Structures are given as structure tokens and as C-alpha cells.
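Posting this for the archive.
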Amino acid sequence: MDAGVCGKSKLVTITEALKEAGVEYLESGHHHCRTGWVQIRECPFCHSANYHLGYSVSGRFFACWKCGGHNAYQTLDKLGVSRESIKELLQGLREKEDQLPSKVGKLKEPQGRGPLLAAHRAYLEGRGFNVEEIVRVWQIEGIGPIPPRLAWRIYIPVIVGGRRVAWTTRAIGDRVTQRYLSASDEDSNISIKKVLYGIDYCHLSAVITEGPLDAWAVGRGAVALCGTAFTPAQCLRLTSIPYRFICFDSSHEAQLRARSLANELAVFPGVTTNVELDAKDPAEASAKELKQLRKLARLS
């Protein structure tokens, strides 16, 4: 933010910025452009000229099918968009996000939840968790055979500011099509994709994980996105944390997402680091590797 500028100029959209720079692009509706994206003819990084570079309108990041994710500011700069327009575009996106309503519904928690049963405990112990500590810190509960849709799952409340705003569940069996099932926006006080699971335990530093079990493994100071993708709301909330350590799964796809998030956060104040574990994910990492991660992230 430039303290020497007075007044408020017109906010720029992504297509206006591209037009200004004379960049060829396609919008949603064209067969080469997915809904919610703007495709650019030539990538300024790998110089592919087949509309491989796209801009996610909701995610606020650039991604190229050939060379991966890229920081929004750097990409626009390389495309020839003026610095003033870039600043207006990014500021406009942040203001638009700030104006989104926080409350979307009334929290409706599922029936059948209660103290963990033997099957829930066996599952958690088998994953190497200290059950009593997880219950105390993360306030989890168990769901038995009823209701059928959520049968034999771990109930995981999403707590922000000391109050429950949403929830998700984790199946304890392997024969399921969806490991996680979450509250709909209508049954949530705040959409689960507008918040960060575990944010109440974060201050100057945070380890950013994909799922709640990964956050449990890291301990206090970890947050989970509750899904494989991040939203503008989650990204915006991460910008308030000075030291950010992204720790996604070790798969190629997950690491592409991690780099996209790192690129998106890099333009904001603070330090963003992408951490690749030897283990598949934090929930399967050894105690030694988790200790090293916490030390790196200044959590211990």
C-alpha cells in the first residue's frame, strides 16, 4: 500500500488488465477455457503459445499446464500489465473478499455423535495418535451406526474464536468412497471453506496442511484447509500469519497445489515456505520428522 496516494481509483478486473497490456486471452464458454478461468495465449515463463496458461478467478492464481503454478503479481508483470493496474487488481480482489458475508447458515450438528467408541479409539491408536490428547485439544467425538450416511466416523468440529462454526467427519473404515464428509454451507454458521481448521492455536507461525488428521499430527500451530484446494477466503486469512509453512502430501498433484498456494501467498508480507516431507503426509510422518517440522516452523 502506497501511503502517499490519496483518494480511491477505479478497481481493475483481470480482463481489463489483460486488454490494457494487449494480451490475447479466452474467457469461460470457449472450448479451450474452463468455467471460472481465463486462458492466456502465451505463457511468459515457458512460452507455450497454446493457451496453456490460465488464471483462476476464484483461486486468484495462475497455473500453466506445462510449467505449473505462478505468482499472480509476477505473472501479470511478465505479461506487460502496468504496476499500477496490478496493484489495483490485487487490491480489488482483497476488498471483494472482505465484503463476502461470513455467516451463511445456522449450525446444525449431526445426530448420533457422542463419546468415542472402541472402534474409533482403535482406529486413532492404530494411526499413532494419543487419543486423550486429541479429544482434549481438538474436541472430537464419535458417531456410531446411526445416522447411516455418517456411520462409523469421527466427528470433527471446526472451531473459530472459541465457538463451533462448522464440522467435518472422517471415516474409520477403508471401504468408503469419501473419507471426509462435511457440513453443507446451510448447516454451518460459516462455510468450512471460508475458515482454517485449527486457526485458534496459531499466532506468529502456522503449518498449513490439507486435512484435520495432518493438523493433529503436527499439533497446535497447524491449520487444515479441509480439502485438496484452497479458497480466496482461506488464502486471505493466511496472509495475517507472518510465518507460513505449507506441508501438503508428497504426491505430485498435491505438490502442484502447494506451489500454487505458495505463489499466491508470496506477494503478501511475511515468509512462506513449502516443506516436503519424506513421509507421504504429516499424519504418516515419524515422530522425529514431525519434531523437525515443528522446530522449523518455530512451534517448539
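The chain has three domains: 14-98, 102-195, 197-300. The longest strand covers residues 163-171.
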